[in-house]
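Researcher: Go.
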Amino acid sequence: MRFIDTNLLLRYLTKDDEEKAQKVLNLLKKVEKNEEKVIASSLVIFETIFTLESYYKISRQEIKNLLAPILNLRGLRLQDKEVYQEALDLYTQQKKISFADAFNATFAIKNGVKEIYSYDTDFDKLEQIKRITPK
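Model: Structure:
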């Protein structure tokens, strides 16, 4: 097993370097066939989404469309993999919240938590979770 870094995903998704994009595609095909196993951290996914949105100005919906197939690769090991798909759904539906907030809310809900301690009022936009502040 090997670790896959953000820059590989960005080269593939943006195709800003065709040669590297093709090499990453070849790797991802092996990962899909389980011929190669890779692991990624949460930071890789977060950094990829942040860079696609802020630097490349890619829409939330397009980011979801680009990342969903990668997250579903059979040979990709990623902790809380199922949370990412639902967080991407929430991220695309709620235009005013960050992916980090969408992920944290989804993570909480998946773990049976219905309230979140936060001063971040963005959580007030979500019906599935109630924001509370410490007293």
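Model: Strands lie at 2-3, 38-39, 76-77, 115-117, 130-132.
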